[in-house]
Amino acid sequence: MRIAIVGTGYVGLVSGACLAELGHSVTCIDKDLAKIAGLLQGRSPIYEPGLEPLIARNMAEGRLAFTTDIGAAVAGVDAIFIAVGTPSRAEDGRADLGFVMAAAAEIGRSLTGYAVVITKSTVPVGANRQVAEAIRAANPQAGFDVVSNPEFLREGAAIADFMQPDRVVVGVDSKAAGKVLAEIYAPLTKAGVPMIETGIESAELIKYAANAFLATKVTFINEIASLCEAVGADVTAVARGIGLDARIGPRFLQPGPGYGGSCFPKDSKALAHIGRDNGVPLQIVEAVIGANDGVKRRMIEKLEALCDDDMRGRTIAVFGVTFKADTDDMREAPSLTIVPALVAAGAKVRVTDPQGRHEGEALLAGVEWIEDPYAAATGADLVVILTEWALFRELDLARLARGMALRRIADLRNIHAPEALRAAGFDRIAGIGR
Predict the structure, then answer these.
(1) What SS3 class is residue 418?
(2) In terms of residue numbers, what domain contains 189?
(3) How high is the pLDDT of residue 48?
(4) Positions in the chain whose pLDDT score sits under 50
(5) Residue 81, burial from CB neighbour count under 10 angstroms (0-12, 13-18, 19+)
(6) Is 263 marked active-site?
(7) Residue 363: in which H helix or E strand, if any?
(8) Residue 90 pLDDT
(9) Which backbone phi and psi does 404 adopt, to 5 degrees?
(10) What pLDDT, on the 0 to 100 scale, is given for residue 196?
């Protein structure tokens, strides 16, 4: 099928490359001239494992193109995906639909025949109806249907998530639109992937409900980790013990310094607002948001304790600032709360991250960026592991400890066993929940 995708951010770019890999003819559209120029040369504006080779292969085989000309890209296509950002509004935390509605209006002005407009962006309940109104206002004669098709991509594993998903969710109102979506995803459904067809509002809510539930699991195990520390239990044993219960499952039960990223914080806040706006306060979701903020504050207290409650003049090496491994995404990363607190307390902070510097330099003031983790730790009083990059899992811990002024470490991802840290020479250790 001929497909246009408006937006070449994380969702749009991964979706476009994967849809091309499935055999469709895909054109990705963006107003950012520099971004499109880079993509035409095979350079991805985001870091995602395997994405650049996927883009290059499908461009070479003629299935994937990039342009700034929405009119030419939309003319005659079967389907148009909206994959622009829906950031939280600074004033109230609600989803900002400005980019979505602007894209809808442009699509309306560009339509030359019937097409299915598919909202891939994460939008609150009712937004797809607004998309239809915006298209109709821009072009009253346009023939189109609007479909909700939420994405469930994990950064760092997005290509596998698209090509081998747990499910495909489509919210449709018409048989014609349903047929188009069935054809788009036929390569996946023929391989056994279930496609769930619902009403539009149900599809919109599925995305928010899924992310809020996962955020709840993360926050739950972080609170249990605090209890483990108080009573002398080991959270890794507790997580394994409950995760083997088939009703619970082991995923998202790894404690850490709080959830972040492009989805969980934004979508949890948006869902809370949807509940309030409809007279149904979501008390669990509201509590999760507050508890996650508390987790980050508790991490700062751990680090203060390792510095004997005085960080002035301390040299602290922070390993990892992206919100998770295998991405360059800094959105809502715990580092954006923790690192500024260290700087404000008078510490000299060195930062090392395989991909975080590109975004992090503008977001983390007053820190020194060092490529090599051993160099970052040389002469340091404390090492803090904030992101679970493989590079930090594979460290020579004895070499790391030998180079430090004080052999203290806060492993806020529990990627090293306390016994291994002690054997390497660390004499003061902090983890999560043990």
Answers:
(1) helix
(2) 2-198
(3) 94
(4) none
(5) buried
(6) yes
(7) helix 357-363
(8) 78
(9) -90, 155
(10) 97
CA 95, CA 128: separation in Å to the nearest integer? Answer: 13
Residue 91 has what pLDDT? 80
Amino acid at 122: T
How many whole angstroms separate alpha carbon 415 and alpha carbon 434?
Answer: 13
The per-residue pLDDT for 261 is 85
- Would you give the DSSP letter of residue 88? B
- Residues 319 and 275: their CA atoms lie apart, in Å, by 38
Single out the catalytic residue among 18, 228, 263, 307.
263
Q: Could you give the CA distance from residue 66 to residue 152 in angstroms, rounded to a whole number?
A: 23
Helix (H, G, I), strand (E, B) or coil at 34: helix
Tens-place pLDDT, residues 61-106: 999 999 999 999 999 999 999 999 998 887 887 889 999 999 999 9
pLDDT computed for residue 88 by the predictor: 84
Q: Which two tokens stand for residue 345?
A: 């307390």
- Radius of gyration of the chain measured on its C-alpha atoms: 23
Query: How would you label 203-236 residue by residue, b for 16+ Cβ within 10 Å and e otherwise?
Result: bbbbbbebbbebbbbbbbbbbbbbebbeeeebbb
pTM: 0.89
3-state secondary structure of 17: helix
Task: Using the 3D structure, point to which of 164, 198, 232 is the last residue of a domain.
Answer: 198
| 409's tokens | 């470490």
How would you write 180-223 as a 3-class SS string? HHHHHCHHHHCCCCCEEEECHHHHHHHHHHHHHHHHHHHHHHHH
Joined tokens for residue 341: 């607190």
221 & 358 share domain? yes
Strands 79-82 and 2-6: parallel
Instruction: Please name which of 188, 144, 141 lies closest in space to residue 169, comparing C-alpha atoms.
Output: 188
Residue 184 has what pLDDT? 98
Give the total number of structural domains in the chain: 2
Domain of 301, CATH number, reads 3.40.50.720
Residues 411 and 337 in one domain: yes
Q: Nearest Cα to 295, choosing from 266, 254, 326?
A: 254
